[in-house]
# Entry
Amino acid sequence: MLGAIATETHAGQVRTDGQDIILSTKGGLKLETEDKSAGFQIGGRLHWDYTQDESDTAANGNQTLEDFDARRARIALSGHLNDFEYKAEFNIAESGSGGSVEDLYVKYKGFGEMANLTIGKQRVPFGMDVLTSSNDISLLERSAMTERYTLERSAGVKLSGRGMDKRFTYGVGLFEADGNGTNDFQEQALAGRVTFAPIMTKTSVLHLGVGYQTVGATDPLDETDTMNMEVAGALGPFHAQAEYYDSKVGPQSFNGYYAQVGYILNGGGTRPYSDGIFKRVKAVPGGTWEVTARFEEGDGRFNDVGLAFIDAQQTSLGLNYYMNDAVRIGLSYMDAESNTNSDSGNELRMRLQFTY
# Structure
């Protein structure tokens, strides 16, 4: 009797109809056929932040805000079948754009590395800082210039690719200018970016990039044309990047720039770089420490320090501890002052980041 029960208990089997399946738990849960022709992956991220914001403005006086919540909480489903890839990523965090769709697209790669066609909601090819994953940026928040001049993600069609030696990348696309309603494509955005890395070795890189973005509007006086220039590099544990934006909205002109540096303190090697952007610092056994700083000035979106859209300058300092490939603990401090009046603001932010 007991033998029969034991036999029935262990009678279940896992079978595949076709290719053998490989299960990987590195960087998420991934299933892939042995010939790599098809695969499916579940991943996500959790950024849990403590923030203390202080601002002193003519409009609102002295204000102090304190919060402890999830800056980002995302789950992502992605996969591929032959020459097609897809991704569906959703943010369920309470702060920021909680409950939003981040990525929702299908990509065709059958033309080769030089020409990938992507349809759906995706990253708009314009700017280096904005195209770097929030998991990988060195400071905990992107620059105020990036926040003002870039679209980040939008629904549209994009053609992108890279050269065979991986030094050259490009992307160009047509997107919704704004909104998620039923009549948003009447206001369109055209964006493009080209990058080239004349130096790219295991321990050093020199990156150059340019981009252009035009955003339409119902009123022609609200149409926006923006160009940007990028320069970045890494040499051993040192890395740096800078971007300049120049924008015209009807008859008005706006511009701004940021310059950022970082240093990996204890054997973390060089900050990884591929496809025209930096990747996350790699953790070594025992963890890796990184210090980083940024200065920016111009017409930006200084929401993080309570100053909104103004002409200002801001200094940011950061410290990161990469415990392993999944866990990062970060600390940053930002201090901003208006260039046109006495408004000022600062923010202290601490983050526990978990990526899977």
